[in-house]
Amino acid sequence: MSYDKSYNLLKGKKGIIFGAFDENSIAWKVAERAYKEKASFVLTNTPASLRVGKIQELSKKTNSIVISADATSICDLNILFEKTLDHFGGKIDFLLHSIAMSINIRKKLAYPSLNYEFLRKGWEISAVSYHKIMQTAWNKKAMNRWGSIVAITYIASQRSFPFYGDMSDYKSYLESITRNFGYYWGVKEKVRVNTVSQSPSVTRSAKSIEGFDKFLVFSEKMSPLGNATAEDCANYIITLFSDLTRKVTMQNLYHDGGFSNTGIHESTLI
Amino acid sequence: MSYDKSYNLLKGKKGIIFGAFDENSIAWKVAERAYKEKASFVLTNTPASLRVGKIQELSKKTNSIVISADATSICDLNILFEKTLDHFGGKIDFLLHSIAMSINIRKKLAYPSLNYEFLRKGWEISAVSYHKIMQTAWNKKAMNRWGSIVAITYIASQRSFPFYGDMSDYKSYLESITRNFGYYWGVKEKVRVNTVSQSPSVTRSAKSIEGFDKFLVFSEKMSPLGNATAEDCANYIITLFSDLTRKVTMQNLYHDGGFSNTGIHESTLI
Amino acid sequence: MSYDKSYNLLKGKKGIIFGAFDENSIAWKVAERAYKEKASFVLTNTPASLRVGKIQELSKKTNSIVISADATSICDLNILFEKTLDHFGGKIDFLLHSIAMSINIRKKLAYPSLNYEFLRKGWEISAVSYHKIMQTAWNKKAMNRWGSIVAITYIASQRSFPFYGDMSDYKSYLESITRNFGYYWGVKEKVRVNTVSQSPSVTRSAKSIEGFDKFLVFSEKMSPLGNATAEDCANYIITLFSDLTRKVTMQNLYHDGGFSNTGIHESTLI
Amino acid sequence: MSYDKSYNLLKGKKGIIFGAFDENSIAWKVAERAYKEKASFVLTNTPASLRVGKIQELSKKTNSIVISADATSICDLNILFEKTLDHFGGKIDFLLHSIAMSINIRKKLAYPSLNYEFLRKGWEISAVSYHKIMQTAWNKKAMNRWGSIVAITYIASQRSFPFYGDMSDYKSYLESITRNFGYYWGVKEKVRVNTVSQSPSVTRSAKSIEGFDKFLVFSEKMSPLGNATAEDCANYIITLFSDLTRKVTMQNLYHDGGFSNTGIHESTLI
């Protein structure tokens, strides 16, 4: 597929993109695509990720500034939003949350054997951070009317995928935040909030999951259109940030080549 | 909201739009918007609708031809697709199904008192027509790879809305066709198939529903972003026809200002 | 598992059971189990099924009468309900709909190649019959308050299972009838209406499905508790007919060993 | 409705019931009903709840012992399960989780203004406790084959109900645990795990919710069968603990008089 065209879909729009680490990150692809569509944005990630990852490269490519922030810290988030509003001289139009981490998965602790201290951290990073970002934006009145907030999720939030461990529960929580905060954003600020439930993608965090490779192949076979790539996901998210989808809110949107509604694929029954 | 911008999202794309009757029709708005986005298309409706409605006006505005066809007639559909492929000198990229009719509702027969002959006709017009259109397109190999097929539905397919009568069941059937034919289209032709579950809109068929006015107000109050209008819907459908949403398939996509996931709205509890 | 115990759960309850053909039928197992739980009921099926099947054997075993009726014929249904109410000297408490047939599947017509005359018949037999049965019961005021109406469905109504063809769409329609007629039954008569979405079972109609054997094995592997058998299903339906589930209505209840919410089973990824 | 009959549905079954506080608690009603159905069980709650509530009264009525335990403490849970297994001289058959608390709601902090320390506590009490209970039972191999584990939830987990605040997100998490731990319990131990999504009930925790009274009336009007009471819920849960529902697992079961699938009720549109 050629993704070379630009439609100027985000011309004049400003935003913050959370979670770009390297060129495999969904957030990275969204930044590249948003830049092509004429958006301006701030890139942000934790100090550790900024150090290890390649965000400076992305920053140059997309002519955007980088502001370090731990999305579990209200203090960091306050500074991030203040700097951003200051940088743009006004409110913003979109937010992307692409943040997820499970220490239990990294430590190869199976779901029945979760460590609860790791669980708390994973939940705060992967799910509560979404609420904190929105609470900060809410308190600072940072969003323009008809703005758009998106987070990335995975279908393990709705069905059991054993390899995905406690991350499944965080994603359920994330989707619930979407509905609940989405209600308030809609009523008071005409801002929409959604999650995109994406095919498995070979990102940095995916690599820490045992058996991920096998699963990727299974998912590819089960999806009538094949897995959606990170580039595909970026394209889709651009439509959600654009003015053409203003009345879509509080939804969990499957972007997965049809996987979610495929009970069985003929090719897997042989 | 201003919908004046054009993004050239459908440049070079060709399609067929079923169901434009007058300027209140969703299909009408889609045609206008698709034209603005540089698509070429054929307009079609039944002979009776062509006679009574204003499609010639739309045809002129959008520089498109009109081909009469009853979407319940395989014979008519064959001719329609042959003429269309001939007209464009090749395959097409998108199809819009916006066809629905319940004689039981028109005759004010409540759901427990359905007339089964009316039921059969309503089902054939509102639901089976979608299968017939896709079967014809399938047999004629009419769709380009990465094409997009969309039908309009309503949330009464998933929850009980008494005023919507037997149309609710047709819409369920329509959404099921979407999943099942969508599987084959995806696997064999890389074409995607979806439904858009739209807010209640004041279209010609809506006007035949008793109590529709009251319901429209309720729906407006219950939706955090307000009801989505037919123009909003057209914008959204353009994104589904574009190349930016290629991996979304077999989905029922709520475009309703958040109504579907709002259990209760504070303003309705006073 | 031992299913020998009886709890007298249906003592004093009367009903009609549609669709028992032979000892593999779910309706057959429900009849056996309902009898054990002290229910009285009428067995019914089409004249052809009565001739070919073994319903007389079941009738003797369960001390119940058999009344021939084609569930697509309002005339037959009127007679059935009149005779039943007369037989019991009063209203009834439960109805079981276990009727499904796809000529397209029997003729091995794949989903994109459906014959629309066969489709209409399949839809009338498998889905509309449920509405007709309820309409007849409604008009004759045949149900006691807190009665229970159940139909059997399959998850292909919600996700694509290619081997299940057009039956998938009929089941979607059936589930929609459940919600819509369930609303009226609830509001006016305090009667509940539900579907049970059952694991694939080796019934007579299942045997006509190509590739069913392979699928049965796949489903067994994917279900954390294994497939639910027809006996399991009978047990479950008894609880839905009992007084212990009076507030469950308009639901599609998965009875499938967990299949519906299992995205992937470790044993299938090897 | 008369719930006086006993069916001996739980004869010989043993279990633990978490969360009975006073006669309005769902757990209280389940204990009463389970006792009538011949189950034996241990009652448990936090030391503070035991002090303030009336659990001793229930203990006498149902001939059961009380063991104090904080369900967020793995240490307490270990002792609870050890004592229980010892008390019964063997494994148990059922567990009921009826535990929920939101400090944010008590403090009247609206959803956009959550306090994150309160959030963490509420999440640990209302959601993580379910995982901890199952992890303890898992490690101690406490459950008999074909045992049944149930937690109480509310539809705010799936749609926005502003008055329900952060509890909505906990309930989503709880339902996700159900699917994910349910998978493992099913595969390894043939134990089923479900949630019951219950109508709003006037329990102690409900009383702390602002605007709950208005909502209760709205819910009563919107539910075709009316709200399900705590007694209704107890009856339903008994069926889920019985041997008649062995293949139902990883489900969220709506027990709500049809509320969940009622889009609009005629009586609310006047």
Tell me what you see in this structure.
- Four copies of one chain form a homotetramer.
- The first copy, chain A, is an alpha/beta fold.
- Chain A has a single domain (14-257), classed as NAD(P)-binding Rossmann-like Domain (Rossmann fold, 3-Layer(aba) Sandwich), CATH 3.40.50.
- Chain A has ten helices and seven strands.
- Chain A has a seven-stranded parallel beta sheet with strand order 3-2-1-4-5-6-7, with helices on both faces.
- In chain A, α1 packs across α10.
- The two termini of chain A are 30 Å apart.
- The model of chain A has no long low-confidence stretch (mean pLDDT 95).
- At the C-D interface, α7, α10 and β7 of C face α7, α10 and β7 of D.
Protein topology:
Four copies of one chain form a homotetramer.
Chain A: E1 14-18, H1 26-36, E2 40-45, H2 47-52, H3 55-62, E3 65-68, H4 74-88, E4 92-97, H5 103-106, H6 116-139, E5 143-153, H7 167-189, E6 192-198, H8 204-207, H9 212-222, H10 230-241, E7 252-255
Parallel strand pairs in A: 1-2, 1-4, 2-3, 4-5, 5-6, 6-7
Helix pairs in contact in A: 1-3, 1-10, 4-6, 6-7
Regions with little confidence, pLDDT below 50 for 5+ residues of chain A: none
- Average predicted confidence as pLDDT of chain A: 95
The rough form of chain A would be described as: globular
* Largest β sheet strand count, sense and barrel closure of chain A: 7 strands, parallel
Overall structural class of chain A, as computed from helix and strand content, comes to: alpha/beta
**What's the domain count of chain A?**
1
Provide the spatial order of strands within the biggest beta sheet of chain A: 3-2-1-4-5-6-7
Largest interface: C-D, 50 and 48 residues
As a percent range, the share of strand residues of chain A is 15-25%
